[in-house]
């Protein structure tokens, strides 16, 4: 797999980097931890060595015969700094080389992802904002921190995103290397996007429903990627099995009708609408107010009605210049036949792009990886495979070709 350098700066959130390290190792990556001297005041050297299975150093003198600050930078496929403190951001922006981590940051030519964590006042200080802007201009991917509980009783923006979210971002940079440049450039900055995710449910009674196996992973990955690239993101989540990104506005819905209402409402201010949610196509004619009981060995007859076609409705009412993206989960194993089904659906729904995948035998549901074909109205087709985090960036690349 890949070689990852995990830089850890001296903040209380350093403990979360232990979980990130474990996730990276479980994915098969080789991980070298490079803590700053202050980071070792929070998590000790032995912990990093035990979890990584590799020697750990904070200075350029240990193992100087192999010139570690150059070797590590050159060997890395990606460099991740989590947490990145205000001090680390300042030193990196200034081109300092006063410990091993800042030396690695100066020597690497690989994608660099920084996840800031600090008190709200420090994150919002003009000096920090200027340093972040400098780093982004140089091609460094600097995430916005999450909002939430900080040290002590403080709350606000400045919290390190959860390790699972950081792991997804690393997967994206490894699977779609161009995503680093897109994120650093903020190529979706100034855009408002709305992404639906998860599976809708239609109630039979208070405890039963008609639904589907969607986990929401793909939609969440799309929302996370758009936010990383600078967009204002609204995620309309229908029963997600994975946590939503920390940097988006989440709208919870249950049924297809609720999803349609919320998507239509948010569409008024959106530049891009992405219907990645798996919609229940049918609903019961009526829903019981009480739990339906068995009656001997008799079966249960249900009369179903079609639900509203959310994607077709959004396409029909879109404004000039607004881009609508649909998803099609098909059980057609033959590639040529599956693409033809997708082309027919693209024409029928009226959207600008349609992302088609094969879900035969439950493939991709709940999985971190996928394989898709992105169809466009002009007849184009581009296929991608890999982690959903990486594929999400490829989908946004296609969206950018449609935006005016």
Largest sheet: 8 strands, mixed
User: Which runs of at least 5 residues are low in confidence (pLDDT < 50)?
Assistant: none
CATH superfamily of the largest domain: CoaB-like
Q: How many distinct folded domains?
A: 2
**Overall 3D geometry?**
elongated
Q: Ends: how far apart? A: 38 Å
Output the structural class: alpha/beta
How would you describe this protein?
- With 404 residues, this protein is an alpha/beta fold.
- The chain has two domains: 3-182, Flavin prenyltransferase-like (Rossmann fold); 189-402, Rossmann fold (3-Layer(aba) Sandwich).
- Helices cover 36% and strands 24% of the residues.
- The protein contains 14 helices and 19 strands.
- It has helices at 14-26, 45-52, 68-75, 86-93, 100-107, 120-124, 126-137, 163-175, 178-185, 217-228, 256-267, 310-316, 335-349, 388-402; strands at 3-8, 30-35, 78-84, 112-116, 141-142, 146-149, 155-159, 192-198, 202-203, 209-210, 232-238, 249-253, 272-275, 282-284, 304-306, 323-330, 353-358, 369-376, 381-387.
- The strands form five sheets. Strands 12-11-8-13-16-17-18-19 form an eight-stranded mixed sheet, sandwiched between helices.
- Strand 9 (202-203) and strand 10 form a beta hairpin.
- Helix 1 packs across helix 8, helix 4 (86-93) crosses helix 7 and helix 10 (217-228) packs across helix 14.
- The protein is elongated.
- It starts with a strand and ends with a helix.
- The model has no long low-confidence stretch (mean pLDDT 92).
- Residues 3-171 form the Flavoprotein domain.
- It catalyses: N-[(R)-4-phosphopantothenoyl]-L-cysteine + H(+) = (R)-4'-phosphopantetheine + CO2; (R)-4'-phosphopantothenate + L-cysteine + CTP = N-[(R)-4-phosphopantothenoyl]-L-cysteine + CMP + diphosphate + H(+).
- In the N-terminal section; belongs to the HFCD (homo-oligomeric flavin containing Cys decarboxylase) superfamily. In the C-terminal section; belongs to the PPC synthetase family.
- Pathway: Cofactor biosynthesis; coenzyme A biosynthesis; CoA from (R)-pantothenate: step 3/5; Cofactor biosynthesis; coenzyme A biosynthesis; CoA from (R)-pantothenate: step 2/5.
């Amino acid at each position: 797999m890949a070689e990852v350098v995990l830089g850890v700066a001296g903040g209380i959130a350093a403990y979360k980097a232990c979980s990130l390290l474990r996730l990276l190792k479980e994915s098969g990556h080789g991980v070298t931890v490079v803590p700053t001297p202050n980071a070792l005041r929070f998590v000790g050297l032995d912990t990093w060595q035990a979890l990584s299975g590799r020697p750990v150093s904070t200075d350029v003198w240990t193992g100087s015969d192999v010139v570690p600050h150059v070797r590590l930078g050159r060997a890395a496929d990606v460099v991740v700094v989590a947490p990145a403190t205000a001090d680390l951001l300042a030193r990196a922006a200034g081109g300092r080389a006063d410990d091993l981590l800042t030396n690695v940051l100066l020597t690497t030519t690989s994608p660099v992802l920084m996840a800031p964590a600090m008190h709200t006042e420090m994150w919002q200080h003009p000096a920090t904002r200027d340093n972040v802007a400098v780093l982004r201009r140089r091609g460094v991917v600097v995430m916005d921190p999450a909002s939430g509980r900080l040290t002590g009783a403080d709350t606000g923006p400045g919290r390190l995103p959860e390790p699972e979210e950081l792991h997804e971002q690393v997967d994206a940079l490894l699977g779609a290397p161009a995503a680093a440049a897109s994120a650093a450039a903020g190529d979706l900055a100034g855009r408002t996007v709305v992404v639906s995710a998860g599976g809708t449910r239609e109630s039979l009674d208070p405890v039963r429903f008609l639904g589907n196996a969607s986990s929401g992973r793909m939609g969440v990955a799309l929302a996370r990627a758009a936010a990383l690239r600078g967009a204002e993101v609204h995620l309309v989540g229908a029963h997600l099995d994975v946590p939503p990104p920390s940097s988006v506005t989440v709208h919870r819905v249950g049924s297809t009708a609720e999803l349609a209402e919320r998507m239509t409402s948010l569409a008024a201010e959106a530049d891009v609408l992405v219907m990645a949610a798996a919609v229940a196509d049918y609903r019961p004619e009526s829903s019981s107010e009480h739990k339906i009981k068995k009656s001997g060995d008799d079966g249960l007859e249900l009369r179903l009605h079609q639900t509203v076609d959310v994607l077709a409705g959004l396409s029909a009412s879109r404004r000039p210049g607004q881009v609508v993206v649909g998803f099609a989960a098909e059980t057609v194993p033959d590639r040529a036949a599956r693409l033809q089904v997708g082309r027919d659906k693209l024409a029928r729904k009226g959207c600008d792009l349609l992302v088609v995948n094969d879900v035969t035998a439950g493939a991709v549901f709940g999985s971190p990886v996928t394989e898709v074909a992105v169809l466009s109205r002009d007849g184009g087709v581009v296929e991608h495979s890999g982690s959903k985090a990486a594929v999400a960036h490829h989908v946004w690349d296609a969206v950018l070709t449609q935006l005016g």
